[in-house]
Write a structure and sequence with these properties.
Length: 209
């Protein structure tokens, strides 16, 4: 039997992730790179020091991000960009062979009674590959994956799932791919993913000419 739709709770949501500032200096700490100066220009990754699998994964990630946001900021092997005005941060750790996609959602101190349990329930059945997490006083949407085995589809799907967790926070709490309900989120996310992958294929064909 399908579970009843959750009652909408009153959450303090950060509209499109724009209510806080998460500079790339923070993300840069995860891969051992020093925080950049405020006026430092975009830094290119030192790809010569990376394993071939990691470099290939970073190149794929860069292509996906460029397709989503032409104004994406990059510091080392970390990115900050927007998808439909929602701020997304991608952090990599090449030594640990891990990457993560995160987006800020709400102030943890403003969660109403019962909200923490609801987040854990969502992590069990509707969050899927992306998850809700709490850190630095905030609720986040987060997606974690090994770096060297990350495919273009994995990465694009991770971005869309993480964004969906933020967009549905307080209502369906869904990554949008699969759930036990009968809504439309899964089809919407799949369509967005296919559109993005088609755009990447078209870019690669144009570059090859």
């Amino acid at each position: 039997m399908l579970a009843r739709s959750p009652r909408r709770l009153s959450f303090g949501v950060l509209a499109a992730g724009a209510a806080i500032s998460l500079p790339l200096a923070l993300a840069a700490q995860d891969d051992g790179a020093p925080p950049p100066d405020a006026d430092q220009q975009e830094a290119a990754p030192e790809s010569g020091e990376l394993a071939p699998e990691a470099k290939a994964a970073l190149d794929r990630m860069s292509e996906v991000i460029a397709a989503l946001d032409g104004d994406a900021q990059r510091t080392g092997n970390n990115w900050q960009f927007k998808v439909e005005e929602r701020m997304i941060v991608v952090v990599t750790d090449t030594d640990a062979d891990r990457m993560r996609i995160i987006t800020p959602i709400a102030a943890a101190s403003e969660l109403p009674e019962g909200a923490m349990e609801r987040l854990m329930q969502a992590n069990f059945d509707t969050a899927l590959d992306a998850r809700y997490a709490i850190g630095q006083g905030l609720v986040w949407g987060a997606f974690v994956h090994p770096l060297d085995s990350l495919t273009t589809r994995d990465f694009a799907s991770g971005i869309l799932q993480t964004k969906s967790l933020a967009d549905t926070f307080g209502t369906t709490f869904s990554s949008g791919v699969l759930n036990y309900g009968g809504g439309d989120s899964g089809a919407i996310i799949e369509r967005q993913l296919n559109d993005l992958l088609e755009e990447l294929d078209e870019r690669q064909r144009r570059d090859a000419i």
